Amino acid sequence: MLFCSHSAYAQGGVSAIVYIDDFSAGYGADNKAVDLGLNVYWAKYNVGASGPSDYGNYFTWNEASTWNSSNNYQGWVGYWRTPTNQEFKDLTNNTNGSVKNFKCTFINKNDNSKSIILTAAGSNTISGSKGVKGYYWASDQTKKGLLWYGYRFNFDCCNWDLDYWNKSYEFPIRPVIDKVTIIVTTFGGNTIQRSYPKGTKIKIGAYWDDCHRVESWTKSLNGASQTITPNNTSGDNGDIEITITEDVTYTANFSTKTTNLKAMTEDYQKGSVGLNVGN
């Protein structure tokens, strides 16, 4: 029987590699999420719209404040929700924003290929506002005197503002989805870190060499660790599919594998592996 020598590899300084296959890159699948370099992804268009130029549906604040896509609302699935007032502030303060011709454009400061446009969809309850005014509900509220009002983002031809309004009025929703980060790592410092929309399904794996296989993964989440053993179909790379809903770290753990004598002898003669040969 032939065994690879783990110690020979460690002394040789050979590091394993890790990889992420974002084959469904979350919500890249339905083409709605845009990364503007913020803590959330913004949708390309309004709830109920078929594209960026459509106005979509209109909601009272009570409807908007609790809206989310958990019930597959008109094709919106996963974890989409109404943005908060603070998220609107982040949008205006931390992107390259402008308002022109009754449209608000926000561009990622580090990647001008990523942007969204808010249309002047107006309101069902404000006559003559469609096409010349933009109103968008936030999910939180504020009390003024004895009354509670809903926060909103609004704009006209040339300026935008964040204020509050009567909750019974009907405005559109431009949804957001939380950004979550996964770190995939192993020994030798090889690490990949990527961010995705919450609920994204990806595949991770790791490779060292022909002598070793991924025996397990250590999942670290919120200060707790869990060992995950790949199934029999995962192969030596320990491929597993996961759905990311929180910031998480996965660490690949390797073990030495028994392999074919002829193949390993050929590798040994090439000077690429260290061998322990026994009965």
Give the helices and strands, then pairings.
Layout: E1 2-4, H1 6-12, E2 17-21, E3 33-34, E4 40-43, H2 61-65, H3 85-93, E5 96-100, E6 103-108, E7 111-119, E8 134-144, E9 147-155, E10 160-165, E11 176-185, E12 191-197, E13 200-207, E14 212-221, E15 224-228, E16 240-244, E17 248-256, H4 261-269, E18 275-277
Parallel strand pairs: 11-17
Antiparallel strand pairs: 1-18, 2-13, 3-4, 4-11, 5-6, 6-7, 8-9, 9-10, 11-12, 13-16, 14-15, 14-17
Describe this structure in words.
The protein is mainly beta and 279 residues long. It is 11% helix and 42% strand. The protein contains four helices and 18 strands. Strand 9 and strand 10 form a beta hairpin. The protein is elongated, with a radius of gyration of 26 Å. Residues 1-13 and 272-279 have low confidence and may be disordered.
Range of strand content: 35-45%
From N to C, what is the helix and strand string?
EHEEEHHEEEEEEEEEEEEEHE
Query: From the helix content, strand content and strand pairing, which structural class follows?
Result: mainly beta
Total beta strands: 18
Distance between the termini: 5 Å
Identify low-pLDDT runs: 1-13, 272-279
Count of alpha/pi helices = 4
Question: How would you sum up the global shape?
Answer: elongated
Percent helix:
10-25%
Q: How is the biggest beta sheet arranged?
A: 7 strands, mixed
Q: From the alpha-carbon coordinates, what is the Rg to the nearest angstrom?
A: 26 Å
Query: Mean of the pLDDT scores?
Result: 86
